[in-house]
Amino acid sequence: MKVCILTTAHSPFDERIFHKEAQSLAKAGYEVVIVAPYEKSEVKEGIRIQAVRPLSSRIDRIWRIKPLYRIALQENADIYHFHDPDLIPAALWLSRRHRKSVVYDVHEYYGDSLLTRYWLPKPFRKFVARTVDLIEKWAARSFAGIVTVNGHMAELFSRENPEGEILHNYPLERQFEFSRPEKVKPPVILYLGGINRERGLEVILRAMILVRKKYPEAVCELVGPVETSDLGPEFSDLTPWLEQGNIRLRGKVPYEQVPEILAQSSIALVPLLPTLNYQKAIPVKLLEYMAAGLPVIGSRFGYIEEIITKNQCGLLTEPGDPESLAREICTLLENPKNTLNYGQNGWDAFHREYTWEKEQSKLLRLYERILAARDQ
């Protein structure tokens, strides 16, 4: 059986797409091809990458739907699995015109996320967000199945299409083979992943200056792309903020380097602001921190608060409050025994409950049901 995975917004080697779903399907015996923007077509670890020309902008993603659709149709797959809402037209063509079995993998609350997108003119955000949400739900009725990332999202889509599975985007246990932490490390404070204002960039910049007044040796590493266009005017020049806060910008790194970066850190941050999207999301970085045995400081809301409180793996800070964040960072630096206990608790919880290996069977069951229904 052949599976064709489609994306315009992600690399073919995206963590969820390639390392989790595609590899799980390939190991289960499926032939897997990923159609995605990339420099060249190739075969990696038994998975074929069918490259389309790299996209230059968000608008380009829309214009390139038809060529991507044609390539996908040529693959003549048994199941098509797509990851981005801008591919809904192509997915509907595959489903309705060609009677193909199509799975929509919903990563986030796209309508809600548009309400905070700086590149979208503010007067139009509510209208565009509502329109995208309606289109998503309407289109879901035409697909063979819906994959979601949490229970709340699954409930919203089940009203339109009852066939689906919740695949929590938990980390791969085999890629986070850390020993249970036994000692406190030097004061390296980590934020992992893309960051902007709503993910807490301004809060970190202000908080680290306060932390260094008490702990001048403290270092903060931001590992991932940094978006500055939505920051306040006082951050037009980041250089003095980075110097005073001893903050290093590592930029985006290959997924394979993430475990080493985690191993060199001592405290990890999830200072997201309570936007509609983040109130309902489980940040993957939080679980990766736990896998590495790092104590976590996270914003007091949503799944962040629930997971940290349930597993006693860190401290909570008031969203958007740099003084609160600085205070909790200093609390961990002042109490190495408690810091180590938080890290150990998170490590234990990750292996007990939050690994992808415990999720992948649900993806395989969904495919089995879809193929069985198709053959009836």
Strand order of the largest sheet: 3-4-2-1-5-6-7-8
Q: Assign an overall shape.
A: globular
Q: Give the terminus-to-terminus CA distance.
A: 16 Å
Oligomeric state: single chain
Order of helices and strands: EHEEEHHEHEHHEHEEHEHEHEHHEHEHHH
Strand content: 15-25%
| Helical content (DSSP H or I, runs of 4+) | 40-55%
Helix/strand/pairing category:
alpha/beta
Summarize the structure.
Helices cover 44% and strands 16% of the residues. It has 376 residues and is of the alpha/beta class. The mean pLDDT is 92.
SSE layout:
Layout lengths: L1 E5 L8 H13 L3 E7 L4 E3 L2 E6 L5 H6 L1 H11 L3 E4 L5 H10 L3 E5 L4 H5 L10 H16 L4 E4 L2 H8 L5 E3 L21 E5 L8 H14 L4 E5 L15 H7 L1 E3 L8 H6 L3 E4 L5 H4 L4 H8 L4 E4 L2 H10 L2 E4 L4 H13 L1 H18 L6 H16 L1
Parallel strand pairs: 1-2, 1-5, 2-4, 5-6, 6-7, 7-8, 9-10, 9-12, 10-11, 12-13, 13-14
Antiparallel strand pairs: 3-4
Helix pairs in contact: 3-4, 8-9, 8-14, 12-15
In words, what does this structure look like?
With 376 residues, the chain is α/β, with parallel strands linked by helices. It folds into 2 domains: 184 residues, Glycogen Phosphorylase B (Rossmann fold, 3-Layer(aba) Sandwich), CATH 3.40.50; 180 residues, Glycogen Phosphorylase B (Rossmann fold), CATH 3.40.50. It is built from 16 helices and 14 strands. α8 crosses α9 and α8 crosses α14. The two termini are 16 Å apart.
